[in-house]
Amino acid sequence: MKIIACYSNKGGVGKTATTVNLAYAMAQAGRRVLLCDLDPQGASGFYFRVKPSKKLTETRFFEDVARFAGAIRGSDYDDLDVLPANMTFRDFDVFLARMRNSRSRLKKALKAVKSDYDVVLLDCPPNISTLSENVFRASDAIVVPVIPTTLSQRTFEQLRDFFRAHDLKEKKLHGFFSMAQGVKSLHGETMDEMRREHGKRLMTATVPFASEIERMGVHRAPVLATAPSSPASAAYRTLHDELVTRVFGK
Amino acid sequence: MSADRSRLYLLVPDALDRLAEAGAVGGLVPALSWEEGTTAFQVRDTFDQEIRHSGRLLIETETQIEVLGAEGRSLAQPGVSAARFVAEFAKGPVTSALSDLSPLRCLLPVGAGVLRRGVLALLDDEAKTQARALLLDLCVTEGGAAIVVQLQGLRGYDKALLRLRGMVEAAGGTAFGEQPLYAGLFPGQPDYRPKPQVPIGHDTEAFDAASDIIAAYLPVARANETGVIADHDTEFLHDYRIALRKIRSVLSLFRDVYDTALTDELKTRFSALMVPTGRLRDLDVYLLERERFYGMVPDSLHPGLDRMFALFAEERAAAQKSLAEHLRSPAYRKEITALVKLFGSGRKSGRRKLARGDKAALPAYDFACRLIWKRYRKICAIAEGIDAETPDHEVHELRIHCKKLRYLMEFFAPLFPEAPFKRLIKPLKKLQDNLGLFNDCSVQQDSLQQVLGRLDGATPGDLQAAQSVGALIVVLHGRQLEERARVVGSFAAFNSAATRETFRDLFHGGKE
């Protein structure tokens, strides 16, 4: 099982759209996926029409295996389940450790209901906190959408600094350009510059700025499901393939 | 989605429409959608309807094969299957689900039609699916129609699944199973059973019991004629022969139920029906056991076996052709029709004309007890005398008596309590397996000797074949000795104190 976090220390970069489409693409490729909506402002659950559960706001949630398993909701798509938002995250690192440990009660409980997952995708809140540090440590990969602007360039550098300062493995960082606009020369220049500077920490896949992605809020479904032949979908597929190769190997 | 949450139901098309138009239930709205267009499909089964009798349905389209009802759900695998036997299918969940079918039985078309797929979903106020039913609308050409409903729960929405299940059941959904499905889709499809259960009452006259059994097995033989002629698989001939053999055994076992002269005449007539089938069956057995024969001798002798099996295959083709001609001949048709008429129980049938013997009026129960007990005592008498020195023909004798005992017990099974009866049949089968192997080894040695006699040292390849055949005979002889050595032990295992007591209780009023 792999844990993949979608994270950005800057809001409005297409993070949730990325999580939703990656989750969908992985499930379509036959992996059993659990998407955890950890971002209280995020909308992963909203895009899958899954209502937040009141049960989840209670404390010590992750201690309670049965309640945790009971909070997971099946999406409309095969092999793709959602853990909705609106929870307290203080035990989330405990949860991640348990997902890792194949002998933990949590894993056994999930196996018992035939919901052992190949991938746990985390839609993380946009700040650097104790939670995010724990998430970084527990994750196999951190996917970071970056809008090719000077401001985003700075935040990506800040994230790398944070990793170095906290002795986190920088290799886990997989940035990619999001909401890129080909007509803007600034975008092109920033992308060139960042690729030179960050090398392998940036994936080659680039997701364009696209109205289909904006309309996800209207359709409340992944672009890959509603507009599979759009350029945006093609970009998400490329991103998926590249990420899967990086995380799972060939 | 998980397997234990799925369950299959059957619906009539009207019921589905009503269900979809029912409106919101508990805040959930049913939404029905169908895929565009239809797909041609065919349904196949073995001749003895193993798939049907196990409550399953095998559907093949141009792109995939699907089995419905395996463990209460549907399994599919991609690919077209031109294969006649399941063993020739590509690997996949369908192939493994069907691995319980007899490997000797080919799949034959049951019917064909068009299907379309759809989904009935229960949506909440956010238009999120909370439960769904995958729909398979089957419409058989010149047959019936049915909608197969596969409930699919979504994690965390158990209540919605219960609600959907309730809706399907309230709409008249019945659990997926043999009866409604096959009767609905393929009305008029004959229900072939190679072992018909013939009801016999305690006081049924022995004459009627014998005639009823014969009358039940004649159609079994007849049902297999077409398959033997078409040469679909080897089981047609096997079942054909078993049916005739059972009839013949009724004639010889139910002594004095018919008049002696009539019994002799009927025996001759049924034996005459068996004669043209013998050689083809022998060759079938050789060819089916091909792998086993190759395993008996070293690789260096395999080319000789290739030659032998090529000869067998050639001879089999000729034997099959000639048997098919025989079965199609007016003489055969006339004879079998006459026999069917003779044992029929209708008003115009010939049964009343059959000459009755001394025991015709005996009640079946008394008759059965007497025959079974006598046969059992005879088996004990022979078996108790068997030791390492006993000549083979006495072992053969034991085998034949066991076989007769088994037939008697099977014919009269309806008269006796099931559980103790089964307790007797099981060890008897084991003993018969041992004796059967002993016999097969001996028969095959004889017939391989005949093969040797037909080989000509001057013909290229024949010398090689002769060497291989010789080696096979040696191996078979060794096996025969091994089986022979097991007979005393097998009999002791069969004739335990418990067996002896059950035989006494069931068939001899508890007396020694």
TrEMBL record, chain A:
The name under which this protein is listed is ParA family protein
PANTHER family (alphabetical): P-LOOP CONTAINING NUCLEOSIDE TRIPHOSPHATE HYDROLASE, PARA FAMILY PROTEIN CT_582
| Matching InterPro entries | AAA_dom, DNA_Partitioning_ATPase, P-loop_NTPase
Q: Which residues form the AAA domain?
A: 1-164
SUPFAM superfamilies, alphabetized: P-loop containing nucleoside triphosphate hydrolases
Automatic annotation (TrEMBL), chain B:
A Pfam family for this UniProt protein? Answer: CHAD
Q: Which SMART domains match?
A: CHAD
The CHAD domain is annotated at: 203-512
- Which PROSITE patterns does the entry mention? CHAD
What name does this protein carry?
CHAD domain-containing protein
Which species is the source of this protein?
Answer: Salipiger mangrovisoli
Taxonomic lineage from the root: Bacteria, Pseudomonadati, Pseudomonadota, Alphaproteobacteria, Rhodobacterales
